[in-house]
Amino acid sequence: MDRSKFKKAMSEIIKQPVERLGDDALLSNLVTDSFLLVDMVIELQEEFGVFLVQEDLKEVKSVGNLIELFETKSRETA
Amino acid sequence: MLSENELWLLSFYRSSEISGALFFGKLAQSIKSGPIQHDMTKHFADESTHAWYWTQCIDRLGAKPLKLRQVYQDQYIAAAGMPANIMEVLAITQVFELRVISQYSVHSQAQGLDPVIRDTLHRIMEDEKWHIEWIRDALHEMENQHGKDLVEKTIRKFKEADREVYSHTMSEHGERIKEILYANERLVNGPK
Question: What is the ipTM of this complex?
Answer without folding.
Answer: 0.85
